[in-house]
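Re-run with default settings, no changes from the original entry. Doing this only to confirm the output is reproducible before filing.
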Amino acid sequence: MFHDDQHGTAIVVLAALRNAARVTGRSLGDLRVVVSGAGAAGVACTRILLAAGIGDIAVADSRGVLSCDRADLTDVKRVLPETTNAAGLRGSLAEALAGADVFLGVSAGRVDEQAVASMATRSIVFALANPTPEVDPAVAHRHAAIVATGRSDLPNQINNVLAFPGVFAGAFDAGASSITETMKLAAARAIGDVVANELTPNCIVPTPFDARVTPAVRAAVAEQARADGVAAASVAG
């Protein structure tokens, strides 16, 4: 299964976060991430971040952090606390952000400045709601080392268009029967690596107009499809 707003967004989020971690001198395993939004995009982002080796993730919906003892969770949401929230957090999103390294917003909610200010030193804020980010970019810049949004008028635009058409082109090149999680991880690495030698706090992902992105993603996805054994035999041979 593959959906652009879910898995495309997740791929680009991971690409950006890998590079943001590098800029701030961290590894993915060092990071404590708080995700605001437990809908389709939030679930897809959480899954790919876990697959990439993120150290700890807490997911929050409009009622607070998802935990196994909450009785109001849908079937989809009920699965998330089984693989997230290693710290056993309870309570509100704002409470979860205290000391967190990363805020990832994929909801329409709002986060106030006090909560952002409570995050760890050199924090990373990805506020992706459009047209109004969950954290006002000017507020985020007062407290975070790296800020990204979904907006085209600001640096570090996290836009799922960066995954296309490369993901599908690579899958077609390999005659892939499915798009695996490792193919998505390969796409994220390829996107991030395009600007690996150009990283700054305001450049953690390529722009949608960077002509290097599609060929890089296409090649990486096709290669991974063959490694995963989902490529057509005639193409793989």
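The chain has two domains: 4-149, 160-229. Residues 160-229 form one domain.
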